[in-house]
Amino acid sequence: MSNNSDNVLIFYDIPSRCLGPWSPNTWKTRYALNFKNIPYKTIWVEYPDIEPTLKQLNIAPSMTKADGVTPHYTFPAIYDPVRKEGVTDSLAIAVWLDERYPDTPKLIPEGTLTFHKAFLAAFSSKIEAMRQFTFPKATWALNDRSEAYFRRTKEEWSGVTMEELYPEPGTEKRKVEWKKLEEELGRVAGWYGKDNTFVMGGEDNACFADFMVGGFIIWIRILFGKDSEEWKDVEKWHGGRLGRLIKALKKYE
């Protein structure tokens, strides 16, 4: 839950012009904090300010850039103003929250950290088709300073402009690539038991793996809108399994 006290955790997120919380990676941590019912306040930081913000707080980067050497500073990040310590990377944050708040619901149940690491790697490999739809839509919704940064990094990754990457509505390419996305998300949906809402089973047994998936599925809803044809498709695909997940996670939004 969000809170304005000076002693609560600080959660660093990335703003947009019109979307509110939008980043799939920071959504994982937003879900996690609300799931554990930990008081926090959100501070919004534009992309070019992420590195100096984390350096000022003495929060170490969680990864390196493509050269394997240069530190890469990313969000989400959490900072505890009482302990004067912080952490970045959504999975590392989940571990940190479980360790420091042991009397709250577990994000990573005992003995499942290896599973969560494997789940994250597998899930990341199943969302290739999503990026051509979501990266451009996110680019066009960001504030100017973040838009320039995000555009540059994503165009370096893709080798084309965001406008060229995006499959235009009504085109054959759009139909083909949207079908690929349906197939990829079908593999993810298949990891869930036939009658289970959450990956660990049951209707009330959420864990961090569900927040990993939820962060990216809600990204589509946020970017295209609740009433869009795109979201209506995703919500009903594969027997509505991923749509049910997002509905079940609503109380943690």
UniProtKB/TrEMBL annotation:
SUPFAM superfamilies: GST C-terminal domain-like (SSF47616), Thioredoxin-like (SSF52833)
Pfam families per record: GST_C_7, GST_N_2
PROSITE patterns assigned to the protein according to its UniProt record, in alphabetical order: GST_NTER
Cross-referenced InterPro entries: Glutathione-S-Trfase_C_sf, Glutathione_S-Trfase_N, GST_UstS-like_C, Thioredoxin-like_sf
Domain GST N-terminal: from-to ranges: 13-105
Name this protein carries in UniProt: GST N-terminal domain-containing protein
Organism: Tetrapyrgos nigripes
